[in-house]
Amino acid sequence: MQTSRDLYRLSKGCFKTTLYEIRFLTLRSCSRASRFLEFQFRKAQTSLSSLSRCTNIASRRMSILALFMLRVRFAPSPTGFLHIGSARTFIFNWLYARRHGGTMILRIDDTDVERNTEASLQSIYEGLKWLELDWDEEYRQSNRLDLHRASAQQIFAQGLAYRDFTPAAAPAQSDGAWLANPGMRELSAAESDRRAAAGEKYVLRFRVPRESEGGEVAFQDLVYGPQSKTIADLEDFALLRSDGTPTYHLASCADDADLKITHVIRGQDHLSNTFKHLLIFDALGCTRPQFAHLPLLVAPDGAKLSKRRHGPVVSVTTYRDAGLLARAFINFIALLGWSPKDNREQLSRAELVESFSFEGVNRSNAVVNFTEEEPFDPKALWLNSQHMRSMPATDLACYVAQELAHDGIPVPFPDPWLVQAVDLLRARYITLKDFAQRGLPYFTDEVVMDATSLERLTSPARVGLGTLASRLAANPEFTDATVEAALRALAAELGLKPGVLINAARAALTGQAAGPSAFHLFTIIGRDRAISRLRAVAE
RNA sequence: GGCGCUAUCGUCUAACGGUUAGGACAGAGCCCUCUCAAGGCUUAAAUAGGGGUUCGAUUCCCCUUAGCGCUACCA
User: Fold this and answer.
1) A123-136: string of b/e by CB count within 10 Å (b at 16+)?
2) pTM above the 0.80 mark?
3) In Å, what is the separation between the CA of A434 and the C1' of B23?
4) Is the distance between the Cβ of A454 and the closest atom of strand B smaller than 7 Å?
């Protein structure tokens, strides 16, 4: 639960950022804002109870404003499939937005025309769709180039940027310590204008204050705490490329400002970039958003996850295709770098939303534990099995039906029998794939005998199963109880240990030595099918 | 190289300076049992190294080491 201190801290930041816009709400009527908020909250399915904790009117008022003004964004660039690291960034943004009744924005950062692909964009949508996570607004950077250029112009007009006519081909000195192009930085305005007018290509660079002029850039990271850097240590980074398109830094900041983003939640790889971004926000004259950087997801060797080095395990669709439940994946990913601090491991989406806060976010990179042989982190698999076991069987049946349909296995849906079958099987399966693979004898007529099953179908057992088949056929009543009674009675008559016949029965019905209790099995397999399978192995 | 960030069991993590350093996954063992699971119980396993500060450091400070990130007209 949120403490009023959190709320206060949060509201303080947002209050500053959006002072102008919210003036109209400022409070003649707390109750009106409150009603509005309540609506927002309902939308986000969270409760209003945290508010009642703010006793003081001023903080209560600010909380209200902050809460409904909160805006976060997920800004992927469509240059590959949806990476699990990106998915995690989305998830954390989403959790934070939903936790506080804020607005979740999807912004496609596609300023790099060279590398963007439509396929990649589709892969992002596909991944997000699987996660069953939503967003409230959507933008595409390529539609906002005018804004970016205007922002660049605004910075340039203040003398905070300069034109660099150095040809792209000439690489910056490789011996490190590159900060600025002195010749270009000091170029006179007249000379700069003349060359630009003559059509000479240039890169627009930010004029980073040097030793004599600037002190430090500092900010408070919501995860990493106080951050600061000597401004003079920053290089004169590019704002506009020589073809006039904005760089990531410019486009991102201009959009964040324009979209009134209040909290930038992103990977820790942007922590150092934040200093540049702060310079841009300041140059643009807009209020800085708050920042929360997330520790990175890395491979067991400590390297950043990459498709080239680590293969398809870094793509969210791989998890989907392996039969994981979105809820388990989200649960797993959320626990990488974040902890509810109370020893809970399995959390529902609602519990995640309810307990998420930056205080629980760790600062060191998290290893996704996979190997060549075992491509999925064992914990992800375990969480999946836990979710399969604890979710309503009808819900699981829905996913199972989809999975089976995908594999071309016809199955009635919705259907009580399916629900029962799923319920019987789920305690020993760990992914949805298991239903379509190990579950074949339950959902189709295909029975493939495994070696252990064959061993259990001893000659006396086969004789017994033959008799059992006749007896079941003779008795119109067919329930778990009648089957058990018949089986045990028969075992006694034949002088066999019940287990021998029971195990043989399972082998005959499923071809599998491992599986659910034989007595629950018969009714799920069905009377006719069961009898014919018994006869097929009978002697 | 410069700058920044990080450092607890194999992995994910907990421990607002005082705990027998806790939990989970994976491992081992036991119980349960018609098989396999599930479930229950038990077990092994960690504060990177060195200095401070303190009555007392996993915790605060410094150094070393290691890892990661930024250092592009990529994002």
Assistant:
1) bbeebbebbebebe
2) yes
3) 29
4) no
